[in-house]
Records
---
Amino acid sequence: MTDCLFCKIVNGTIPSKKIYEDEYVYAFHDIDPKAPVHILIIPKKHISGVPDLRNDDDVVIGRIMRVAHHLAQENGIATSGYRVVVNSGKDAGQAVFHIHYHLLGGRHLAWPPG
Ligand code: 5GP
Ligand code: ZN
């Protein structure tokens, strides 16, 4: 999509601190981190959010979860623990409508979330 912030990050029009990339997935540091480790993992393909997922997307979503654990290991939080979060819609505070998985860790994460 031409007018999507995260599509522009994937294609390099808007700079980001990239930490991982493969054929399906791009991962980068969140610009406003909410934890010592706060990484956004996104499909390269534009998908607006959870309600827009289709059967064909199962592979990329599965890949994102495996990349999340890989990046947790690389960032030293796989043993201490981490959270993978997707915000969907208004009540969850979704601000960017290109689906993204937050990988958060490096501190105690309260439950339930706020
Ligand atoms: P949401 O609230 O939609 O689940 O999360 C959007 C996330 O994107 C927020 O954590 C926010 O800090 C991050 N974000 C927004 N704009 C940018 C940007 O231009 N670059 C980066 N790296 N992160 C961004
Ligand atoms: Zn997009």
---
Amino acid sequence: MTKVTEIAPDIFWVGAIDWHRRVFDRFFSLPHGTTYNAYLVRGKEKIALVDTVARGFEDTLLEKIGQIVAPEDIDYIVMNHAEPDHAGAIPRVMAAAPKARLVASRRGVEMAGDFFDVPPERCQAVTDGQTLDLGGKTLQFLDTPWLHWPETMSTYCLQDGALFSCDFMGAHLASHKLFAEDVGGLAIPEAKRYYAAIMMPFASRARRALDKIQGLNLRLLAPSHGPIHKNPSLIMEAQRKWASGPLEPKVVVVFATMYGATDTLKKALVDGLLAAGAETVEYDLSVADISHIMADLVDARALVVGSPTFIGGAHPLVSSAVETVCTLRPPGKVAAVFGSSGWSGGAVSRVKARLESVGYQVLEPLEIRGSPHTEDLEAARALARQVAERILAE
Ligand code: FEO
């Protein structure tokens, strides 16, 4: 029998731990696995399940629910978010709970039909601020759209000050220890890496949601991935900084090299950054994990990209990393580009143009032919000084 934990009076964690999943969305590494958190709220008159689990974990969920109530007695299935890692079990749960209605935002109800064939007559659309009385437990639904899909909402249990925020403020971290306070130092760093990959493009929405929940008497923050927070202010303050700044005087250097020329330029450039007093983090794209790069870019003021020319353009590893950056939109907007080419060149201009297309202010780039010479290394150090001056003056 798997363990059910009562996280507040008559509120039970009935989720699943996915110890072995190692990638999310086919690009985001999960070194610690993840959890799909689902919560059963037992009122005196009605029973609600808040979110479900991913496909493949339905038996775990139903077995845990069965330790508390008969699944057929569930009255409401609250779907804060339609993505299948939380809603994938909805068809099985709705079959096991034939009288249950699915509660979601208007867009969520549409998606429940699109993704899971839930018929409209079994759905109940709710609006911002609307409440659902379970008898001694009142659920209030809060619109928190675009965190990170259009239909996303949060559910707040008034009596317990418990907010079920779904993906927002989550982290990919599998553990039998349910609470952030018990998982050592991993809770905040993993939440940051999660924020970078999932929420960073929606920073303005995150700020709005934080403003919205700031006035609640929050005592428990229960996201749908990773640890539950008994002291919500810690994670909320961290999220506020990631979404609003201030940024750190930090430079993230990413590069690829084929025969070492771009690497040699990179070394001179990093020497220049460090000599100028800029905190510097570097990633060789042939071995780096893109999720760590993105996490560092959450609060870095500058990005520096090094690429050899590869058939007239950037090295494929660089192209991929730059596209990821342009998609996830980190807040720091100072950039520099450098690299070596064999004959035609082209990597540096392509990367510069792509970064400028999403608002980066790219300093005059450095592109050399062949192996770096003394004057090339000096040019790399000079470029580093320009980057450092820009970020240290901010
Ligand atoms: Fe964890 Fe957007 O799903």
